[in-house]
Input
Amino acid sequence: MSAQTEPLTVKDLNTESPRWCAGCGDFSIIMAVKRFMVDAQLTAHETVNVSGIGCSGRASFYIDTYGVHSIHGRAIPVAMGLALARPELNLFIHSGDGDAMSIGGCHLIHGVNKNFNCVFIMYDNELYALTKSQTSPTTRKGHKTNTQPAGSYLDPIHAVSLVLGIGGSFVASTADWMPDHLTNTLKAAFAHKGFSFVHVSQRCPHFDPNNFDHKTSSWFSFLEDDKGIAPDKRLVGKTEVVKHDPTNKEEAFKFASSERPYFGLFYVDPNKPRYDQILINQTKETPSQPIADLFKTFKI
Amino acid sequence: MSKENLKVSRFELLMDAGFGAQKAGDILIRAFAHMGKYVFIEPMIPAEISPPARSRPALSGVIVRTAEFDLKNIGNDTDLIIAQHEIVLDRRLDDEEYSPDCKILLDMGYKASNEDSYEQVCKRASKNGINVYPFELSAEAQMLIKALGGKGRNMYYLGMLSAIYCVPEEFMIDEITAIFGKRLAPEVYDKNIKIFHYGHEHASTNFQHSYEIAGKPSDDKDRILIDGNTALSLGLIDAGVKLLSGYPITPASSIMHTLAKVSPSYGGMVHQAEDEISAIGTALGSYFGGVPAATATSGPGLSLKQEFIGYAGVAEIPIIIIDVQRSGPSTGMPTKTEQSDLTAAIFGAHGDHTKIVIGVGNVLDCFYAPAFARYLTEKLRLPVFIMSDFIMANSYKVIEKPKTCELKDVDDIPDYILDHFWMDRLPDNIEMVRDIQANPGTPGQMRRVTGLNTDKSGSVNYFAKTNQRSHAVRNEKVHHVQRALRAPELFGGVEEGELLVVGWGTTRGSIAEAVHSCQDQGLKVGGMCFRVVYPLPLMLKEIFSKFKKVVTVEMAYGDEYKRTPLAMFLRSKTLVDIEPMVCRATGRPISPQTIENEIKEILK
Output
């Protein structure tokens, strides 16, 4: 490992211009990642951004670190390989609602359960956008898309409830239009050692411009606690702030299953075992044998 | 007992699953090997764990071929069978793999309530000209088996085989002790040994025939007894592969099992993924991080992995994919063998795709293939397949302890490995689609990979010329291998003649034996098998042109209108009218005799 000589700046992390639509929430999300990296002075060349396919998938190309823009739904398996092979690297996963909850749903379950060390950012614009407006697992019921033109048939899967249910060790939700809250959430997620699930409500100005009313705040609440994430400074006083101890799982479920959206840290468990650590330690702690002994037990 | 001296013999032990036929096989071959005889063993394993006893699917057994000379395959027909009851025998007679004077020792212990069934099967055997020798376990042995809750019958059969094949009892007991000594309670162990003695005594007194195969008891410390999957597993360790990422699938799982036990001692680990796709994804993540990784699977898993395999080639992330082929298509026959994944390996994944395919034909290939695969995948940054199959994976063989190389930097790969696969060293500085290929942690070299088309700088680009260039660069990597490949070894050095028999992978032993035998009989027959199946060496057409006819032997389906994978591929490469000579998708290995008969038929 080699240290960066100059302090890291946001400019250092810029690459070619992202090919996203004007007003896309993805710009804010990668900006928050960059801001967090600068605040924490992470070493860019010791950071890997891994992504799947979709608008969010391109994120790994727009941050000047190492990056894997993998295949649809499969960012988690690739990141797992990096976590096992290079545990010292800073690892971020970028995945959309279709990528994480539909085609990659099985990987999400096992990534959360294996609790390997990474920050998982779920870009939730509640539809498939890069393929031009189809219903996703998080599309709200009744919303018209090209595959369900009469309005999406089913109630959406609630990502936060799902991840809490499968035993997430760090479960937070934030939104792309609250840069401070988003950056602080990433900070808390990075500080947590394990699979840090960060749900981000993300605007899609092209296919669902009226979905998240980012100009008003009365429709959602913040969760607050000393062990949690501070409510967005700009919005304090404009909406409800609720006290919630993030080690209280039962209460976390209550907030997650509420009709009203909550942003903040739902749950954290710093003691959940980490599969990556277990495997790595097992290898480290096994006395090594010389290659000359490879056939020892096969001799006749 | 009258003793007959034989050069080679093949026998079988057929039992219900769960009664210890496989363990008995392990004990037998170790004893044979210690006595200096050569052995080749093929287990017959049901696809289910424990099918109902006395049912046809319950057949679990071992086929053992033993000889005074080195064996390269499981041979032709069986000379002697011990069967636990009539149903497993009946099932096995279906395969028609018995010699004309095959002797069947049939345990009559289940006859009392199955008289008709026994009678029918005995009739069937004698109709086929096979002699059935009925026997019953001695009363003392039956008492002991009862005391053991029905276990221990395999020890009786082992005792019988040890008498029939003139293996001194102490050799067998040493092996029984090595396998069971520590695992069984002393009184249980003692009962097993007693049953073994009763079996030995039974055959010595009641069975007229015994056979002796020459061999000198050996305390040669440099010989090992190993199966294909274990050799591959140890080969991965020697090749410096640190992560094996897999998902349970027959018949590849035992690679995961072996490495889960062994690899931590050599700095490696095994990851059991949530599915086949994830398994290869994690291997790719590791290799992107600069840590060599492999995934092992079989047919259905290969189908699932194809998108990531295509991605690996485009993203230029090295990856080793082991495909232990089983009988397909779809779920097929999980514990039977076939070679028909070749097309999925060569041509699988959508779009024009580039990769390298290695076929293993014996346990030594299995041990060397991972280092060779690592060399190729890291030099070329293309996916590299190691194609094995059920028979290769599960057949045991005694070999000299192979050389180890503890591969670190692939440029240091020893010549003996390249020579083994008949390939010259690849040139330095092979062009990549992207200029930057650094591993994370390297300052100023931020490598970002994608499945999208990119230019040299790594930037996503949909321009006509750039895309054409990417294809050219990826294909040129394969052409480098093509140019580096030497002519495959021709069996017996026969370079011209009437007929050339071509194969790849696991059929090599049978093809070699058949071709050598025909050559010894004065027939103008050549034979060769590829160790690298894709791409093929450049001089093939020239080699083929020296034979009047070129045919293939493949464990794959083919007929008048449908060519087998290798035949199809060779025709397209050489425009030689290559026909599949033996193309079978029976799930059983192809015997040397079958090949020899077909050769003679063609040359008639």
